[in-house]
Amino acid sequence: MVKSAVTVTNLHYTYPNTTTEALAGVSLTIQEQDFVAIVGQTGSGKSTLVSLIDGLIQPDSGQLNIAGMTIDATAKASQLSKIHHHVGFVFQFPEQQLFAETVAEDIAFGPHNLGWSEEKIQVAIDRALMMVGLPLELKSRSPFALSGGQMRRVAIAGVLAMKPSILILDEPTAGLDTQATNELLTLIKKLNDNGTTIIMVTHQMEQVASYANRVIAMNKGTIIADTTPQQLFSHPDDLINLSLTLPVSVEIAQFLNNKGAKLTNTEPLSLEELADEIVKVMGRKR
Ligand SMILES: Nc1ncnc2c1ncn2[C@@H]1O[C@H](COP(=O)(O)OP(=O)(O)OP(=O)(O)O)[C@@H](O)[C@H]1O
Fold it and tell me: How far is Cα 94 from Cα 153, in angstroms, rounded to an integer?
């Protein structure tokens, strides 16, 4: 039976010293093992929503249900911090938050805060490094002596070490080259396949098309679409109204069909699906 990982009911939030609501009544349910992409223009409320789900800020009104806990405006700080036993948050440019003298100490920071035993922490460090594809020899190295891509993996390992059942990532591939981007997305997909619920804020529609099973579009602090990527990208006119763009693969497919290519799947989503369609057309012409 599919269980809900996060339920959010009529959440409202206004930042201190501001007057406009950053979140103006958001309700949604995220199921266990969903891969949810959150999209929307800058300032639409994406980061605010995920910060509330991670307990970094507290709702002014409304309710969050995560792993049997209920968080509302009256929740105590200790309740909010318990969320971190279940939810991991990879901030934008997470490598900027590395601080320890060695990679191992940096990864150990979160597990230490959760009160884990030294033995359990050492196992978690090795496991997390392996998950992000970094060699164990790096444990004693300074994180600041690593490449940008490696630093980001160390930062992500620090979150994975706490074994979150829900992983939030805010623009995880920002600033990475194509290879590092693909490797990171493959890792995130693997985590999802192995049971981790993924909530990923992104401006990259290709990533939505290729990885997410569900997409939530936000505007002015509200949810304006909650659907599948296939549905979202099959209504290009709606996308323009939402100030979102089509994935390049969908645009190319449309161009090809306009030129008479007759693709069977008129809305190929990922680049891989588009490639399959092109190969089929080429096969027909031989
Ligand atoms: N720390 C803050 N103090 C005051 N206002 C804030 C703060 N953070 C965000 N806001 C405001 O809250 C609203 C929602 O911002 P939020 O960062 O959630 O949007 P976003 O969709 O994540 O944007 P982006 O894509 O640029 O990260 C915006 O109007 C923003 O200006």
Answer: 9
Largest CA distance in the chain: 68
Crossing angle between the packed helical segments 103-113 and 118-131, to the nearest 10 degrees: 120
Over residues 134-187, the pLDDT tens digits come to 999 999 999 999 988 899 999 999 999 999 999 999 999 998 888 888 889 999
Cα(217) to centroid(ligand 1), Å: 15
Entry pTM: 0.91
147: Cβ below 6 Å to ligand 1?
no
Residue type, 38: I
What average pLDDT does the structure give for the chain? 91
Amino acid in position 2 = V
6 Cβ contact list (under 8 Å, min separation 6): 28, 29, 30, 53, 64, 65, 66, 166, 197, 199
For residues 232-258, give the mean pLDDT.
82
Task: Dump the DSSP string for 122-164.
Answer: HHHHHHHHHHTT--GGGGGS-GGGS-HHHHHHHHHHHHHTT--
Closest approach atom of ligand 1 to CA 51: 18
Q: What is the ipTM of this complex?
A: 0.98
In the chain, where the domains are located: 247-286
- Is the separation of the CB atoms in 98 and 141 below 8 Å? no
